[in-house]
Amino acid sequence: MESLWKLLFLLEPAPVTLVVTAVAVTFGSAFRALNYGKEMERNHDLSGASITLDRSQALMIPIMSSCSLLLMFYLFSSVSQLLTAFTAIASVSSLFFCLSPHVAHLKSQFGLADPFVSRCCSKSFTRIQGLLLLACILTVAAWLVSGHWILNNLLGISICIAFVSHVRLPNIKICAMLLVCLFVYDIFWVFFSERFFGANVMVSVATQQASNPVHTVANSLSLPGLQLITKKIELPVKIVFPRNLLGGASPGGSTADFMMLGLGDMAIPAMLLALVLCFDHRKSRETVNLLDLHSSKGHKYIWYALPGYAIGLVTALAAGILTHSPQPALLYLVPSTLGPVIFISWLRKELAELWEGSTPNLNDKARQIEV
To answer: What digits encode the pLDDT tens for the residues 275-288?
Structure first.
């Protein structure tokens, strides 16, 4: 009975905010992937920036992820500054990708003239896009200086959305293969890695803080204001929330003071949601927008997968509370998202179509980019 009382912690602000944020990001990532697919159909130049996973690539993801885990487990202190610099560049690009459609919408709403002013890296930039890029750079710079968890979450969310939009799945067969492999991967590295490596590799890597290259440069140059720059920084490969959320935990607090969820625990289920969302769109061919979601005949599968994701995430948090140990979130998220989609599609006799995916038009390269 005492253990059940502990579950009341799930009603506190930190876990509630984490669950709501994760569900919103997962759905938002899938919806952005759908819209980006439409953009690729209209603009064939964008298709080169997206990749559709085949069987071998899907199988390589857990293998490469395992190699990356071991690299960071043994050599994190040596490569942390390089990882921070790479993450900063990826964060600028991802944040720009996420905000660009909203800025373009506002520009069209207000009828702003915005001529092309320059080209960089074979891409044309307008004045407004240049200002947006500058704002993204300043946001990442603020994160590098402060290391604040809110900025960390903002950048992590943008990376998740950009990843799901650019890395796509062609059908449920490849999706199921990827999810099952990552299901095993997550269980092994959380539950069994300590037996082989002397420590929980997943937890050790997830809770490590990287050295801040900005602090290193400022220190070597003896720049003023050095004390304002955080020496260690959380990389935006996870979203974090202070356990005492309303109490205003300090940015430099211990990792034990934060609840965290890896980006993979949002991005991987979001790839499934993107797949079924685009499947429903292809079936219905109805215009989809945020104001018409409930009236659209499409999106039927996502309304089974999305609640399943929420249930799986809450179950993972509850298991962590009851067992007092870290839990592999995909242990709960894979069955709770993939299971309903496969079962409902079987009932509706659409499993075969979802399993193999739609046949692309070979005369149109843009339509070979399947979600």
So the answer is: 999 998 888 764 44
Of 365, 341, 180, nearest to 276 (Cα)?
Answer: 341
Structural domain boundaries, residue 151 = 2-368
CA–CA gap between residue 268 and residue 309 (Å, rounded) = 11
Question: 54 with 189: CB under 8 angstroms?
Answer: no
For residues 208 and 83, the answer to whether their CB atoms sit within 8 Å is no
**Contact assessment for residue 69 and residue 202, using Cβ atoms and an 8 Å cutoff:** yes
| Phi, psi (deg, nearest 5) at residue 52 | -105, 120
C-alpha gyration radius of the chain: 21
Number of domains within the chain: 1
Residue 365 · residue 44 · CB < 8 Å = yes
pLDDT (tens digit per residue) in 63-105: 999 999 999 999 998 899 899 999 999 999 999 999 999 988 8
Give the residue numbers marked as catalytic.
Answer: 186, 265
Beta bridge partners of 196: none
Distance CA 168, CA 366 (A): 13
